[in-house]
Amino acid sequence: MNAVLFDLDGTLVDTAPDLIHCLGEVLAAEGWPPAPPEAVRATVSHGAAVMVQQAFSLAPDDARTARLARAVVERYRHSLTVRSRPFPGVAEVLSALQGAGVPWGVVTNKPAALARPLLEALDLHAAAVVCGDDLPRAKPYPDPIFAAAEELGVAPADCLTIGDARRDIEAATRAGAGALAALFGYLHAGDDPATWGAHGLIRTPEEILAWLAAPPAAAGFSRSPVRYRDASRRPAAR
Description:
The chain is an alpha/beta fold. The protein is about 40% helix and about 10% strand.
């Protein structure tokens, strides 16, 4: 693997605290009680609309969703990094990548108007950033992976991607990239990352370095994705 591609929310940065705070302000403005933080946290990777649907118990086609989601985003754009920080271990991983000369990028479905200022404010200088509205199709389509790999000057097959949602893994595997599911991210109670088709499951960011150190065949990247639960066990070479 010659490059690493991170999802943003729930993988590179813990953005939930700021988003939950902004949602709480909208709930209060609408006369609703605060939503359980853990229930909302599980929806953060899916965007403001899904957060609103969860907190306000709205159906996906409820007309109120768009208005309330806009209210959350408007508050959020003014407090992108008040509480948000990279996940524990991320700084060490990025430092190790830099020391090894391995470029890294961010592929997110977050709009550019939110993602790029957030990365800049946190001093996260990715060599490539592809946002949800940069291309006609976002994840789970492979297009953003192709675009990020091209920006980094590597083949998609030489990229190791990390994400905490099924769409992250689907985009990566469709592009022919290596894929690790981040169990430390914003997983819903009903999520089963072992069924997403990732090459591996990681419980901490530091485990990324172990996967990078393994020969491609030993890590399982030379063949179809595997499904297993134990992040400490990698598929054997064939």
